[in-house]
Amino acid sequence: MAAQYSGVIDLEKKIDEARQGEVLDAFDKNTDKKFYIESYGCSMNFSDSEVIASILNKEGFGGTKNFLDADLLLINTCSIRDNAEQRVRARLQQLKKVKETNSNALIGVMGCMAERLKKKLLEEEKIVDLVVGPDAYRELPQLVKTAEDGQKSVNVLLSREETYADISPIRLGGNGITAFISIMRGCDNMCSFCVVPFTRGRERSRDALSIVKEAEDLFNDGYREVTLLGQNVDSYHWEDKESDESINFADLLALVAQVNPKLRVRFSTSHPKDITEQVLDTMIQYDNICKSIHLPVQSGNSRILEKMNRGYTREWYMEKVDLIRKKIPECSLTADVITGFCSETEEEHQDTLSIMEYVKYDFAYMFKYSERPGTHAAKNFEDDVPEDVKSRRLDEIIALQHKQAKAINEHELGKVYEVLVEKASKRSEDELTGRSSQNKLIIFPKGNAKPGDYVNVKITDSTHATLKGEITG
Questions:
Q1: pTM score, two decimals?
Q2: Architecture of the domain delimited by 2-155
Q3: Please, is 255 exposed, middle or buried when counting C-beta atoms within 10 Å of its C-beta (0-12, 13-18, 19+)?
C-alpha cells in the first residue's frame, strides 16, 4: 500500500511546521473509526480543531496521525488570503488518492473557506463529502452519518450565540506545556479588506467562568502557558447574570492570571483602537501575564487606514505605542502589515516603512494585499496596485523588518531572561527551546532542565529570529 501513496507521503513530509505540530495524536480508545485533521491559517483554526476532535471523540471516533489510515479526513481552512485557499485546494487533490483505494473514506472541509464557498466546494472539489462552517461543529456527527449514507452534507449557518464553552478541547499533538483557550468568536470591526466577519459571524464572548475553569484544568494537567484567543480580545465582554457583574478583557486577564503564578498568560489579537490602559495596568500588576502585545498596524498611512476602516490614524497608533512603551518598557511589540492596498501610492508605502522604523517591531506578519470576494474593498475599490509593485514593496518591508529584528536581538546579548522550557531543539537533543515573557524564542543547552521548567538563560548569540544562551544561576 505504501508504494501506491509514495507521492502523497513525500509531500506529507513537507507540510509546514505549524501544521505538523497540530496533526492528531492517536487517542487511547479502541475504535474502528479513525479521523485525521489538518489546520491552516490562524491560531483560532487550530483551537477550533481541538473542539472538533473532542466532538468526534465523544461520538466514537479515534484519531490517527496517518491520513492513510483515516475513515474521515478533515481540513480546517482559512480564507484570509487567496494563497491560503489555493493551498487547501492543492491538499484536497493529494488526499483524493486516499479515496481511490478506500472508497468509503469521507473528506470534509471545515472553517472559514467552508463558510465562504458553501455548496460551491462540493461542485468545485468533486471529492468533498461534507462542508461545515465554524459555528456548526456540533452537527458534525450527524453530517458524517448523512455523508456515510451517500448524501453530501452542508451546514454553514452562523450563530449569534455559539462559543463552544461547554466543550473540553482535546489538545492536538502539542508539547503539553502551552495551549490555546478561545475566549470569543466572530468580529464586528468590518475592516474593508477582511473576510472574517463574513466567515465567522458577529462577535460574542464566552462565559468567563468556563474560561477560568479551562485554565485551571490545563494547569492541573501540567500545562504552564495559555494563550487567550479572539479576533479582537480587547472587545471581550461578558455579563454574569447571577451577580450582575460585568467582566471586560482586563478583568478576564486578571482572573486567569490568578489561577496560579506559575501559569503564564498570553493573548492575541489586540485591536489598536480597543486596547485599554486598564489592560496595560493589569499586565503590570501580574508578573505571569507575558509582556508581549500583538498590535496589527496594517498600514502607516492615515488615508489608507481610513480606507481599510481600521478606526485609527497613524498618529493615534503611534500615541498608543508610546503609552505602551512608557508603562511597560520591556514589552515586545509585533504586528501585521499589508502592502499594496487599493490605491496605495509610493509615498504612502514610505509611511508604512517609517512607522515600522518608529515602532521597531520584534516580529511582523507581512503580506501583499489579496482581494477577498464579498468584502467591502472587493465591492467598492479597484485592486489597482500592480503585482510587481506589491512584490517589490513587500520585499522592502520584509528587509526592513529583518534588519530591525536583528538589531533588537543583538541588544539582548548579555541579558538574562526567565524562559519556560517547551521542548527539545529541532537540531539537537542536547538543546532545549523555550520563550521569554516577551515571546522571544531562545535555544540553550539542556543541562538538567526539562519541558515545563522555568530557567534563567543568559543570551550569548542571536539572529533576526532567535536567541541562543546558557542556563545561569
A1: 0.90
A2: 3-Layer(aba) Sandwich (3.40)
A3: middle
Distance CA 385, CA 382 (A): 9
**What does the pLDDT look like over 278-287, one tens digit per residue?**
999 999 999 9
Q: Is residue 301 helix, strand or coil?
A: coil
374-424 pLDDT, tens digit per residue, is 999 999 999 999 999 999 999 999 999 999 999 999 999 999 999 999 999
CA dist., res. 118 & res. 102, Å (int): 25
What nine digits make up the cell of 246?
Answer: 460585568
Q: Where in the chain is the domain with CATH 3.40.50.12160?
A: 2-155
What amino acid is encoded at 343 in this protein?
A: S
Q: Give the CATH H-level superfamily of domain 178-410.
A: tm_1862 like domain (3.80.30.20)
Interhelix angle 208-220/249-257, rounded to 10 degrees, is 30
Nearest partner of 195 among 382, 377, 381, 375, judged by Cα: 375
Nearest to 416 by CA among 333, 288, 330: 330
CATH 2.40.50.140 in the chain is located at: 416-471
How far apart CA 130 and CA 115 sit, in angstroms, is 12
Looking at residue 320, its amino acid is: K
Sorted by sequence, the CB contacts under 8 Å of residue 355 that are 6+ apart come out as 297, 300, 314, 317, 318
The full length of the chain comes to 473
Contact (CB, 8 A) for 260 and 225: no
Q: Which CATH class is domain 416-471?
A: mainly beta
